[in-house]
Write a structure and sequence with these properties.
Layout (H helix, E strand, L loop, with lengths): L10 H23 L23 H15 L3 E6 L2 H9 L5 E7 L11 E3 L17 E6 L6 H14 E10 L3 H8 L2 E2 L14 E5 L7
Helix pairs in contact: 2-3, 4-5
GO molecular function, one term: nucleic acid binding
Protein name: EFMT1 methyltransferase
Main location: cytoplasm
Length: about 210
């Protein structure tokens, strides 16, 4: 029988897939029924092929609040590959700070001038108006758990920041994070909206509220 060669999804996988598509339909329905907030987490779906995993609402809020405090009044915040933190910061738009998002995924260009296309493979290929050491804090979440990705993202971070760094990456990257950015692990445990297999942690190089 020719059908024998067609791969079949297990009932468990099929159920999980159906659940995912149902959730997606419900989210799309919510977007049209509510006065949709383009800055809410999930307004742009995760693209797993780009290694995208959004933070939980609580984690994104915590990191955004930490960034605002660390940046200080009138501070500038850069979110490098950390769009869910950017979205939370934009929800606080009335506060006295400015923020931009450096991101490979061009869907985030809907955020206008604050969006800067960013490819970690070209860490210093940045617009001329993005001046060196012009951000009070840089929050970064490199897309891949590899030293190469961290090292290249670190070049961008060091170019942008006046000093303060908040890095989110796997626990297995602790040694490399210290080596490339001089950051130390925090007590705060970040969570994602979908559970990840790898343990995730935050790292800073300043006295933060995350300990």
């Amino acid at each position: 029988d020719d059908d024998d060669d067609i791969p079949q999804l297990s009932s468990h996988t099929l159920a999980a897939l159906q659940e995912f598509y149902l959730e997606q339909q419900q989210r799309e329905g919510m977007k049209t029924s509510q006065g949709f907030n383009q800055y809410s987490i999930g307004s742009i779906e995760e693209d797993w092929q780009l290694s995208q995993f959004w933070y939980s609402d609580e984690t994104a809020s915590c990191l955004a609040n930490e960034a605002v405090v660390a940046a200080g009044k009138g501070g500038r915040i850069a979110c490098v590959s950390a769009p869910s933190v950017y979205q939370k910061l934009k929800e606080q738009d009335g506060k006295d700070f400015s923020v931009c998002i450096l991101e490979y995924d061009k869907r985030f260009s809907v955020y206008g001038e604050e969006f800067i296309f960013y490819d970690y493979n070209h860490p210093l290929s940045l617009p001329e108006n993005l001046l060196p050491h012009s951000f009070d804090i840089v929050i970064a979440d490199p897309p891949y758990l590899s030293e190469e990705c961290l090292q290249k993202t670190a070049e961008t971070i060091k170019y942008l920041t006046k000093g303060k760094i908040l890095l989110c990456t796997g626990a297995i990257m602790e040694e490399q994070a210290a080596k490339h950015l001089g950051v130390k692990i925090c007590k705060f445990i970040p969570k994602h909206s979908r559970n990840l297999a790898n343990e995730f942690r935050c790292y800073v190089n300043y006295a933060s509220g995350l300990d």
